[in-house]
Amino acid sequence: MGHSHHHHPEAVSRKLVLAAVATFLFVLVEAAIGFFSGSLALVGDSLHNLTDTVALLLALFAVRLGKRPATTAKTYGYQRAGILAAFINAGTLVAFTAFIFIEAFERFRTPRAVDSGLMLVTAAVAVVLNTVITLALRVEGKHDVNIRSAVVHMLGDAVSSAGIIVAAILIRVTGSTRWDPAISVVIGILILWSSWGILRETVNLLLDGTPRGIDPDAVAAALASVDGVQGVHHLHVWALGPSRPALSCHLMVGDVPLKTTGKLLDRITAMLEEEFHIEHSTIQFEFANCDVDDPFCVPYTAKQADK
What we know:
The chain has 9 helices and 4 strands; from the N terminus they run αααααααββαββα. By secondary structure, it is α+β, with helices and mostly antiparallel strands. It has 2 domains: 9-206, Up-down Bundle (Alpha-lytic protease prodomain-like); 216-306, 2-Layer Sandwich (Alpha-Beta Plaits).
């Protein structure tokens, strides 16, 4: 019945805690080496790693908060906290790139000496750490925009650390320290590119937009193809939380006895959960035929839906 995409909050929490602690400890080491070696790329990467720590803690906070029960003031509970956390994570990444670009411009104007050996070793450790964390959270991230925003942070840092390795090698080969800010700019562009998709998705969900991967027309066609349903209108699909889509709609069922709608409702909710992973649905039956002149009523037949 489509439950496989949900993951146990406690297991996710443990992974996030371990990842946050490991990342923060590495931030302290990388920042110290970055200042000592004079590498902007390492200092920038340590700051990026610091935002990774915040991202992981935000994701953890959202997972914990999302488990709190609904109240009279928060009738849906705190499930949308995960979407808000993902929005903040993506926003901080976008803001962070401004620092990289400004500092890189200064380094182009006045190049500074860089210890490429320290850069190389530190960046190699960073690649391993960030890759391990990214792989550990990748499954949960596929279905939860909150976890995915943290994973994008970690993946972005793995890529930027790989870029630092390239910069260190180029500095050693060419003797030019301008490779340090040049790679920093490339890293900044990659961070912008990776975070933009998360930012756009979270804004869409915060505005009650249709969740990623769900086509309202396909949902309407599936609903209307159920035996007994003559038409669909006032269809809305939004997200209660990072991986909890919800639906409300009116279904035209014609002049039928009220008691016959119970089994019909069971079939519809089972279909929505199975085909679209929509477990929260509010459906209102209208005991009338679908007016083809009504632009909000979508009449389908099983044959039309198959075309």
